[in-house]
Amino acid sequence: MASSLTDTSATFAATVNPDGEAVSDCRFEYGISTLYGSSAACSSLPAAGTSPVEVAAGVEGLSPETTYHFRIVATNAAGTGYGPDLTLMTPGLRPTVTRLSATMGPAAGGQVVIVTGTNFSEATAVDFGASAASFTVGSGNSITAVTPAETPGRVYVTVTAPGGTSATRAHDRYTFTAP
Question: Could you report how far apart the first and last alpha carbons of the chain are, in Å?
Answer without folding.
Answer: 54
